[in-house]
Amino acid sequence: MTDLLTLLVQQSVNGVYLGCLYVMVALGLTLIYGVLNQINFAHADFVTVGAFAALFTATRFGTKVLGLPDTGAYLLSMVAALGAGALLGLAINAAVFAPLRERGDELRPLIATIGVSVLLENFQLWLLGPIPYQFDSPFSLETIRIGRIFFTAQSVLVVVAAALAIVALYAFMKFTFLGKALRAVAQDRETAGLMGINPNLLIALTIVIASALAGVGGALLGPVLVLTPFAGATVIVKAFAIVIIGGFGNMQGTIIAGLLVGVIEAFTVQYLGSGLIDLVVFVLLLVMLVVRPTGLIAERKEENV
Amino acid sequence: MSARLVSLLIAILVLAALPWLLPTPYWRGILVLCAMNVLLALSLNLVLGYTGQLNLGQSAFFAIGAYVSTILVKTYAWNFWLASLAAVAAAGLLGLALAAFAVRLRGHYLAIASLGFAVITYQVLVNWEKVTEGVRGIYGILPPVASTTGLFYLVAGITLVVYVLIDNLMRSPVGDTLRAIREDEVSAASLGVNGALWKAFAFGLGAAIAGLAGCFYPGFVGTLVPDAFNIIESFTMMAMVIVGGMGTMIGPVIGAIVLTFLPEVLRDFGEFRLMIYGLALTLVVLFMPGGIVQAWRTLLRSR
Predict the structure, then answer these.
(1) Which of B48, B120, B127, B230 is best to mutate for the A interface (most A CBs within 10 A)?
(2) By the CB < 8 Å criterion, does A279 face chain B?
(3) A112 contact B CB<8A
């Protein structure tokens, strides 16, 4: 292989790894949007909480109390992050989304979740301080080499975890009764309600799943991020861009857009410098909004007066 | 005398008296900040409250006002007022640029697009070091008037003028048109309202006013760094509009005053300050959906 080709393949591999991390975060946003037509700004902080929950589970509990090896402790910490995310999802649904649902307003839940975000960030700041935490994944130390392409076991873990999450989500949506009911609620909440589906329960379930994904995303992002109480905010603006590029509420679009943004980011770092990542991603977003405002995969919606 | 004229006179008297009621330099500084925040809240309310456009990028225009005016004064030795005029025009033009996207988008798409607009502006400020000095920042910026009290009178006076202008505009048919777009754009279009045109008008005017607020900020603080225009700033402006009561004239003014002074009053709580701020924002949205203005009206009616 020529050097250029090696470089291209290597950066694409890095990009897919990054993209999978973003997909984990963006999927939750798009899920909530698809069913509820709402944006959860505190999603960013669920990622951060997931990362910290994972960090403390791995270092304080997994290795010290249970005596697990580093790798086992890290896998356990992902479960803890999932749980932490799910609990936060339950809480934000009960506190914000459920009470504000009836008013049919897109602005107020958005503002309320911004308030929750400020609260969570500063609570963590008080608890954990502003100094970045070191979160090492034992899988980051294992390097795998295929030909002249290098990647870490961590990136394999991330891709596998993202793939599992996507497959599980698809299977759930396609083959289970709850998944079908969920799609029904997303399509038409009132009619679904008339068919004997409890939309409130399903909306709660959606938010819990979405938030659990954010938690796991945090556990996987932890070793990549500068882990402070504000770490999630750096990821979430990109996740928003991904959700829009993919088309709000469209899972396939979000996955494709997530991988695309990951690859673009990898090449931006290679050719333009890491300072310009956000600039490139958001210029892409604005271009996308001009060319295809409905996202990569368009869904036709009629306008009701 | 009409009731509006009386309230205007009272407002002028209160503004004139304020620096003497809060005589320490620290509190006078907070007053200047408060006047700027009122101006910003008014600018966002025009777009968000009256025209119903979910704009999360207002901090970008505040930033453009601040940077354009400062660079023209410091690098090109322009007169402050001339530079401010150029800065307001630049912010207004950028508002029209955002409107080019905004007229095609609505709801959450617009929210994220405008958020992206603010992120791009922030990134340009950080990366275009030749002009903006990047994260190093610009130092030693002088205010247009030396004393804090003078600066307060200047900014508060301009804010009052802007308030009266917007108030009159909203009472005119233009206000009706903007409100019609907010309530139902499709129906408004069926009555012959050119939605794109008027939305662009609201975005441009709102951006120009935010840019005007930006002209006074660098001189007040003395330094200019991109971090002052983080997207959090947009959220803060939005919080002011919502907490006060959006779509009303006095609401954003009250919201800006409350949310400027609340962190100062809470300073004794130290680290809990911003936690309380976040909690308060959530609780207001949950329990006072129309903000302080609506809560006050409900209270009056129930007595």
Answers:
(1) B120
(2) yes
(3) yes
- Residue A299: pLDDT band (50, 70, 90) is low
Look at residue B75 and give its three-state secondary structure. Answer: coil
At the topology level of CATH, where does A3-291 sit?
ABC transporter involved in vitamin B12 uptake, BtuC (1.10.3470)
What's the gap in Å between the CA of B285 and the closest CA on chain A?
Answer: 6
Residues of chain A contacting residue B58, judged by C-beta atoms under 8 Å apart: none
How many whole angstroms separate alpha carbon A64 and alpha carbon A76? 13
* ipTM of the complex, rounded to two decimals: 0.81
CA dist B190 → B103, B182, B219 (Å): 17, 14, 47
Tokens representing B129? 């070091």
8 Å CB contact between B253 and B38: yes
Instruction: Tokens 């009470």: give the residue.
Output: A99
Name the residue among B162, B185, B116, B108 with its Cα closest to residue A33.
Answer: B108
Q: What 3-state class would DSSP assign to A227?
A: strand
What is the model's pLDDT at position A303? 46
Q: pLDDT (tens digit, 9 = 90+) per residue, A233-245?
A: 888 888 988 988 8
Contacts of B275 in chain A (CB under 8 A): 118-119, 122-123, 126
Distance from the Cα of A136 to chain B's closest Cα (Å) equals 29
Q: What is the mean pLDDT of residues A87-109?
A: 83
Q: Residue B15: is its pLDDT beyond 60?
A: yes
Residue B53 CA to residue A174 CA, distance in Å, equals 36
* Closest-CA residue to B182 (of B294, B47, B288): B47
Closest to B42 (Cα-Cα) out of B149, B139, B140, B170: B170
Residue of A nearest to B106 (CA): A293
**Residues whose CB falls within 8 Å of the CB of residue A87, separated by 6 or more in sequence, listed in order:** none
- Contacting residues of A for B259, CB less than 8 Å apart: none
Contact A111 B242 (CB under 8 A): yes
Average confidence score pLDDT of chain A: 85
- At residue A305 the predicted structure's pLDDT band, cuts being 50, 70 and 90, is very low
Closest CA to A41 of A165, A285, A214, A186: A214
Structure tokens at A252: 């396939």
Find the CB nearest B101 among A108, A121, A289: A289
The verdict on A116 touching B (C-beta cutoff 8 Å) is: yes
B119 with A114: Cβ contact below 8 A:
no
**Shortest CA distance to A36 belongs to which of A282, A211, A195?**
A211
Contact A255, A166 (CB under 8 A): yes
